[in-house]
Specification:
The chain is of the alpha+beta class. Helices cover 16% and strands 35% of the residues. The protein is elongated. The protein binds zinc ion. Zinc ion (ZN) binds next to loops.
């Protein structure tokens, strides 16, 4: 079973609370609790995100939670244990925008990489889908404070850097999606 920790290195065993030892592995030193026979692995967080395209516009959500409140991003979130990335992307899309989609209708665009410093990184499966393959009406919910359809021109001119949280997919890749999916 794998649990992913975010933030500072753990000092104590999450199971028994004793101080952790260190074990050398092929990938470097890893915190270990001998009593519990548990080694903690330092893995990336895995995200899944979806760009919904309709004609010349792409649907983004305004973040309403976590450290980037007010920034605009594709709908998405962390992949839960037991989920395929496309299933997570579909779940998050519906939670945040109200649009339902079949996971198999999502097209993989690229694999994003986010480095937060301090050894914390995320990887992101980025998907795209045309609006016609989705069902329901757009209504922001969950971690999304708002939704908005953006044209190519608005993405270039109306999205200041401090409100742009498109680094998971990348602005250039998102503009390519507008060409390919619409
Ligand atoms: Zn322990």
């Amino acid at each position: 079973m794998v649990w992913v920790l975010h933030g500072a290195d753990p000092e104590f065993c999450p199971r028994c609370g004793d101080a952790l030892d260190v074990r050398e592995t092929d990938e470097g030193p890893r915190p270990r609790c001998e009593d519990c026979d548990v080694t903690l692995y330092h893995n990336a967080g895995v995200m899944a995100r979806t760009a919904v395209v309709d004609a010349d516009r792409v649907l983004l959500i305004e973040r309403g939670a976590a450290g980037d409140v007010g920034a605009w991003a594709t709908a998405g979130g962390y992949v839960e244990a037991g989920e395929r990335p496309s299933e997570a992307a579909a779940r998050e899309l519906e939670e945040e925008t109200g649009l339902a989609v079949a996971p198999d209708d999502l097209t993989l665009v690229n694999d994003g990489f986010l480095d937060f410093g301090g050894g914390e990184t995320d990887v992101a499966f980025n998907y795209a889908v045309h609006r016609s393959k989705t069902a329901g009406s757009v209504d922001a919910a969950s971690d999304a404070a708002d939704t908005r359809w953006w044209t190519r021109e608005e993405l270039r001119t109306d999205l200041p850097d401090d409100k742009n949280n498109l680094r998971a997919i990348g602005l250039d890749a998102l503009l390519d999606v507008l060409d390919d999916v619409s």
